[in-house]
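Lesson 9: reading folded outputs for more than one chain in a single document. The general rule is that every protein is listed as its sequence immediately followed by its structure tokens, and records are never interleaved. Here is the first one.
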Amino acid sequence: MKRRAQIIIYFLIVFSSFTYGQGFLWTRELVNNNNDFRSGRVEVNQDSRIDTLLNRHINANKQYNGFDGFRIQIYRGSDRDARESANEAKAKFLNEFTGMEAYLIFDPPNYFKVRVGDYRTKHDAYPDFITIRKKFSNAYIVTDKINFPDLEE
């Protein structure tokens, strides 16, 4: 029994010496910007060619107008006055639903469409679809190229 107690004490002493070498850092020391080796400052040294590749990638994405997503189509017409009817539908929508985007699209040979919103998934579009369908009974959700979301939001 005495031997077992000595072994346990020995391991506790050895273990405590290992953990003491690790050091302990309080969160407030990281936040207060201490200028010692534990201040959390990171210095990155990178090749200048990485910036060039990043700029090429940004410029390539600017040429690509949007990405696959969903919109709600509220009007589609191909008769003689389809353009005027589409503009009327768009104006009616913008008067009733402020804050949402509406897009007038011409689809050859002679279709005019009005689509609204920019949704990544059909699930995101569904709540707005329910409210829009009350005013525009022919509305339905379609796949479309949507605009990139604003990053400041």
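And here is the second record, again sequence then tokens.
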Amino acid sequence: MSKRCPAAGLVAAVLVSLASLSPAAVASAKSSSAGTTSSSGTFVKAYSNVSGTTQFSLTPEDVQATSDGGYIGVALTQSPSATRPGVSWLVKVNSSGTPQWQRDLGCLSTPPGDYADGVSIVQTADGGYVVGGGTIGCGSGSNCPSSSGIQCALVEKVSSTGGVVWARVYNASASGSAIDKLKRTSDGGFIAAGTINDSHQNVGGLILKLDGQGNVQWQRRLGPAGSNQVLLSDVQPTSDGGYVATGELQTPASSALVVKLDASGNVVWERSFNSFSAGAPTASTRAFTIIQAADGGYLAAGHWDDATTPNQCCSGALLLKLDSAGNIRWQKALSGGLYCFFNGFSETCTNLSALAYSVHQTADGGYVLAGDENLKLSDSVPLEPWLAKVDSSGNLLWQHLYYQTNKSTGRPLSEYFAASAAASDGGFFSLGFTENATNGQGELFPVKTDSTGVASSTCTDLHPATTLNPTNPSLTAATPSLPVSSTVTPVSGSPATTVATSISTQSDC
């Protein structure tokens, strides 16, 4: 249903990358315009990674607003070598969405079979950027050798123009580890959250506190506890100097998980959220993102699926408003209900749903969500990029779908918004996935809207959203008491490099 399982995708199957590779091409930005950019600072575009006449597929992962009013995005792509699974692709654009530079980033000079995938990016105080993800080999020596086949967590620092400053590889578990989200901290360092695999391939949560050079200041592993597994997908610094992380607890039923830590990495409290009948979970809940709200509490967002009545009702975007101690203040699931259609062979019934990958609080106390939603067609229910706003109590105020269509078939080409950033003008910049109708290659789909989620009322990529109804998922909180390990992981350097690539820009609105 979703583009990826945020943490597990890197730990278990990074080789199954949705992206394709970019060659070591020299930078040459070219632009083809199929429309006009709105004078209000909104736009809808598509970015493709090209070299000569060859296009290489891109899969969006993260985007952040930058101090100059522009944006920095990271995507997965493949390297020119067919034997090298993948690298990261960084693209820096200005406030109008015009590319300023783009780079392949990874272990481009090490033997085939190595890879380095970045899935999270932040800007640093000196104007550079730090990328977090996972790698095998990449010159990290005995700490994470290519021959082991074991993935290690990875953090790379590049300058304001994309040149490598340093790269660090973290062997956080003998059976594999990865970073899924990385944020700046007030001391000039970073806080990272992700996953580890134990010797039985059970998954636990990983939190790394790093200094400004990528050195480990402290480390926490949360779980696994037997078959109970932990996947962490987001982390945020909090106003008290600590941190809050969110993700999923699998028991094996999936429950949304929120963990609060103090400034030294000690667990203050932990909560899992699900509904229960006779002591057994009755839903599947996952939290992909979390923020600290203006009132000091937290808003976690993700997905909820009612497991008690499969193919009846319901599933939808999950919103959990917590107080500062992790108690539920309110909860909402935005669901489209059951929909039946003829798929060309038989009648199929499915739940119309939505999913939130990112959330931002607005000045009026509401929240803006970005992710995907089912589009209700007569013969299918494809996932499409979705923007929505709820008020401070979780009531839906507006929602929009943005997607390109194949001009020959009329079918949608776009699939989801992987991430979004709050813009300085009160609008939002979301980075999604779309497909080239001619060659099937993946492209980045950036959409800059105003504060109401609209890029242009006449934009052909703006579409009505499927009707969603608020549902009470009736979740309750439990305390999982996960085992905690604080052993600091070995760290080694990596000879990461960047290579300038070419980009083609299509402007739709």
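What the second record shows: The helical segments are 8-13.
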